[in-house]
């Protein structure tokens, strides 16, 4: 009698058994069910590798093969491949990590290969890879796919969207004679064929092989194109497809998502460990100074990562010596820290940009398992340590902190009046304590902003029967008392030099970065004034500050709709809606207002450092004021406490990585075809304009009226530039990133998560942008967009 170790695609519906048969086999089963030609196969389930003995497996395998009339010989060889639950997921490819064995001609060869694949799950290389990306233990099982071999005349790889550009209007098909194993291994250069999806026209370089050329222009090749489009439409995502042609039939051997489209946020150190810029990307758009980084590093890491990891019981990671590091002056966090922090949250409650950027792969079962494991720690540690995990208590703490903000003005005055290093040190340490208190509140506030925006979005979809057509961002935009909006309105309304001076007197503490090495607006007022003059010369009128009425109208529509529900559900539905809306709006507004408060603290800190520099220069111990920012925090405090009168020498070579942008990824291609890139739409609207690439604040200030700004990330301090723009494209950020929030306030169409955008686009090219669909269309050099 057969046990439940084997599943046969042609006899059973197995595409719902992914936990048993793994991703690769599950995909092939789905393809078979929709009529895609795949070589006949069966699967040895993941359960078998736990307790199965070879002698029992051999008998079962012989019985299974005999029952289904499978012969193994030189004429009918088999392939044995891994098929694990964690392979070929939507955010990370495991290509090359596990083994495949081909052209097996005996049952003993098949059994040997099965055992090798089982053992490979414990290979140190594979275990290290899984550990780095925090794959749950529940996924560390492996099934085995046993498939009839195809003897190909030609084979290769087909990308249904361009793997680098995410170009969706054409396919890239790589073709080579014989087996595609050499192509996937990179030991054979295939012929590349570009296929236009609309008219099936092809572009191909010169081919020396007449048979290969004949195949590319045959009906079989057209059949391959049709199969690729059908598979992409079925999975609703770009696919990386292995295929083979045996002279009579085109076969699909494997299909998986094109993960390279989502790459770009992960950097690897020399040990192969992954790090991500996700948390820091929207906060730091340029490399940090040594002083700025050493001040913020441990404070941010402690509040945003170490303590939350400790609350969840990940003590070993919380005590890790280095959870953060710099790559070319840009800050990164260990990817494993994010994976552990988000392990208890179901993926569907995590924003799309975060899932992709952090490569979060856990499922609901994994979340429940992680939550059960963490619950004792949460109860004993979180409840006894702080109550800020309660939203109303976090708001209360923030209101108490705001009452301490007037002391910032007192600290400013103290800096101006102080002359002693001892006093400078006292002020500096006070600003550090304020920063520490601020971050303890801020970490929960930004967490709640994400949680309530997602819950509100899910709730709207749940109660809507198709009449509302609202998104959460419609109800979280145009909020009163948004500090960034207030400041930009004040700037826009400056008409005279006196009004501008008053503006700088009130808001001059703002800066384009949280790095204290960056000048404040008060120090770089001339640049802001030039931008303001440009804004006043244009006829463009941004919609900033005008979304309040629209938001209120949409809120009223929701309430009116809820009133039409049956009385038995009306009141609970309304109460839940109003609760989610209240907290969603409060914490969305706090993202901007708390950032403004932090700028005020950092302004005093920067002023203290510069006053120290002035005193040192007066003593002829320092020759360049900005050299102070090449000290570390420890060196700066030591200097303030020392009576040494020696000249301070800064070894700039020691900090050669600071102030240098990361190396550009070479992703440009010379391609004259019109193509489309996709990202995440974060601000509604449609725009057509010329690209203006900006990797720095200085470059952003060069924007002209009607430009579409393309950048890695935009700081809130860049927002005065938004007065001029017709659109915004960013490589990073979600719907609640600072730039996304302000873009909506300006009515500026915006798309985020467009990987490598600053490298793909070129200054001056014309693009069309849809902030609704997250689509960007590029035009040919001689092509003009339709009116």
Please, could you describe this protein's structure?
This protein has 787 residues and is α+β, with helices and mostly antiparallel strands. It is built from 27 helices and 23 strands. It has an 8-stranded mixed β-sheet with strand order 16-23-22-18-19-20-21-17, covered by helices on one side. Strands 9-8-7-6-10-11 form a 6-stranded antiparallel β-sheet. Helix 3 crosses helix 4 and helix 16 (406-417) packs parallel to helix 23 (567-618). Residues 9-13, 87-96 and 659-674 have low confidence and may be disordered.
Can I get a quick summary?
The chain has 787 residues and is α+β, with helices and mostly antiparallel strands.
Write the layout of secondary structure elements.
Elements: E1 6-8, H1 18-33, E2 41-44, H2 48-51, H3 54-67, E3 78-83, E4 100-104, H4 107-120, H5 124-132, E5 143-148, E6 154-159, E7 170-177, H6 181-185, E8 191-196, E9 202-204, H7 210-216, H8 219-235, E10 239-245, E11 250-257, E12 266-268, E13 274-276, H9 278-281, H10 290-311, H11 315-318, E14 324-327, E15 330-334, H12 335-341, H13 352-358, H14 364-385, H15 391-402, H16 406-417, H17 421-463, H18 472-475, H19 483-492, H20 497-507, H21 525-537, H22 548-563, H23 567-618, H24 633-641, E16 675-678, E17 680-683, E18 686-693, H25 697-700, E19 708-711, E20 727-730, H26 738-745, E21 750-752, H27 757-760, E22 766-770, E23 775-778
Parallel strand pairs: 18-19, 19-20, 20-21
Antiparallel strand pairs: 1-2, 2-5, 3-4, 3-5, 6-7, 6-10, 7-8, 8-9, 10-11, 12-13, 13-15, 14-15, 16-23, 17-21, 18-22, 22-23
Helix pairs in contact: 3-4, 10-17, 15-17, 16-23, 17-23
